[in-house]
Design goal:
39% of the residues lie in helices and 16% in strands. The strands form five sheets. It has a five-stranded antiparallel beta sheet, with no helix packed on it. Strands 2-4-3 form a three-stranded antiparallel beta sheet. A two-stranded antiparallel sheet has the order 1-5.
Length: 455
């Protein structure tokens, strides 16, 4: 299954390519894919390497000798090319996305234009088709005209300009042709960019509004957290949606389920909290932070219309002269957490504490009316105040999680698997395994997640 990330074409491609999947040297991968490798004669070992990594040979246009040299000499990382094996099983739309990524690379420019893209299609068609044959696994179809999947994908992206009998340019549904037609037209209609590699830019004025929302709604902690997270996510998606289009859009398609797939904001496991979220929207809407709109074109009753929305404080991308950038998002995971770090300096999530962080405590006193008391923690050698709804007796042994020792904040745990709010100050990507993780501090530290640090 492909990570269905929707914020950036560039990021989706990197997810497919597993760009962040570090670890395992080539020899380890060879042992994974070639059975009984060590027991084979050298000649048979080389034969098996050529067989298993032929996709790399085609991708990099190498000879057999060059491939063996690069693989056995660790001059390339074979794991970086494993995605090529999976691509043929993906949909045409995914292969189309990957070939766009390659074509952008073929321009050799960071600030490429659609003219640069068209030039690649005109002058390097053979290179593009070679890559498509690799992605569709049609290399082994002898006649090129029968490699229909590759031909279909190429034609969906680009067609040579043709004129009709009257000498008028024929209209084309191919993407590059459609974009050129849009750019030359003065009509207003939606037109997606060829390849979206733009980051999401959050401005200081928007951060101020997020802080304002936090102050307004954090009367009930669980509900308040959810509403502020939702506002962050909707703001980020509106900007990401705008990045996909040439024309100006001050609204975004409403696709919350897909947004939440990799950016969960609900605290309770196994629940969607959809009823509560409906109330969240209503609160944001009543206070004019959020507007939901119907499509401009009427649709039949039996057809479910596409819904749109806008965050009213979202800065117009064409009017940013007086705005100061607060955050540039290029890593499109843990979106609301990244915004929280800038807005509040930290964020908290409901997690089960590690065994080493749970301390043994003895109840010194507890008042059933005020639901407050004191607990003695042996490891610390002193009493801590606590507040919890329950029944406790003097001398009773309990498990305690220390939230903040300096501020005398602790939580008495009612059950073994109880979750508590853990505070973090950063979201980072582990340079060893490539996965995102929450960090207690902003600094570099080891740069590794807990799992990799234990190795």
């Amino acid at each position: 299954m492909i990570r269905s990330n929707i914020f950036s074409d560039e990021y989706k491609c990197k997810s497919i390519m597993e760009t962040y999947d570090y670890g395992k040297d080539n020899l380890a991968v060879i042992h994974d894919v070639i059975e009984d490798y060590d027991s084979l004669e050298e000649e048979e070992q080389q034969k098996q390497i050529l067989l298993h990594f032929e996709h790399i040979k085609r991708f990099l246009h190498l000879t057999d000798k060059q491939l063996l040299d690069k693989v056995l000499g660790d001059k390339i990382n074979v794991r970086e090319y494993e995605y090529i094996r999976k691509i043929p099983t993906y949909r045409d739309s995914t292969i189309e996305l990957m070939i766009k990524h390659d074509i952008v690379g073929m321009t050799g420019k960071i600030d490429w234009t659609i003219d640069d893209i068209a030039e690649v299609f005109r002058t390097r068609k053979d290179d593009i088709m070679e890559r498509l044959y690799l992605y569709t696994d049609e290399y082994y179809i002898e006649k090129k005209e029968e490699r229909k999947r590759s031909i279909k994908i190429f034609k969906s992206l680009y067609e040579d300009a043709e004129c009709d009998k009257e000498g008028n340019l024929k209209q084309s549904e191919a993407l590059v042709n459609f974009i050129n037609e849009y750019l030359e037209s003065d009509k207003e209609y939606d037109c997606k960019v060829f390849f979206n590699d733009k980051p999401i830019v959050i401005y200081k004025s928007e951060i101020q509004k997020i802080k304002e929302i936090s102050k307004k709604y954090r009367t009930n902690e669980k509900d308040g957290r959810r509403i502020v997270r939702l506002a962050c996510l909707l703001l980020a998606w509106q900007k990401a949606d705008q990045n996909q289009y040439y024309n100006h859009r001050d609204y975004a398609e409403y696709i919350l389920e897909r947004l939440l797939e990799y950016n969960p904001i609900v605290e309770v496991e196994g629940r969607s909290d959809s009823k509560a979220m409906i109330q969240d929207y209503k609160k944001l809407q009543d206070d004019k932070y959020f507007e939901k709109t119907l499509p401009g074109v009427a649709v039949p009753r039996e057809i479910k219309p596409t819904m749109y929305y806008r965050m009213t404080f979202c800065v117009d991308r064409d009017n940013t002269e007086n705005e100061e950038v607060a955050l540039t998002i290029t890593d499109f995971e843990n979106i609301w957490e990244q915004i929280f770090v800038v807005a509040f300096g930290e964020f908290d999530v409901l997690e089960q504490p590690k065994e080493k962080d749970i301390k043994k405590g003895i109840i010194k006193s507890y008042d059933t009316r005020s639901k407050t008391g004191k607990v003695y923690i042996e490891d610390k050698g002193r009493d801590y105040p606590f507040s919890v709804n329950g029944r406790y007796k003097e001398g009773q042994e309990v498990k305690v999680f220390i939230i903040d020792s300096k501020k005398n904040k602790v939580q008495v745990l009612k059950k073994d698997n109880e979750r508590v709010y853990m505070k973090y100050k950063a979201v980072k990507r582990c340079f060893s395994c490539g996965k995102m993780f929450y960090a207690k501090q902003m600094g570099d530290g080891t740069g590794k997640c807990d799992k990799c640090n234990r190795r």
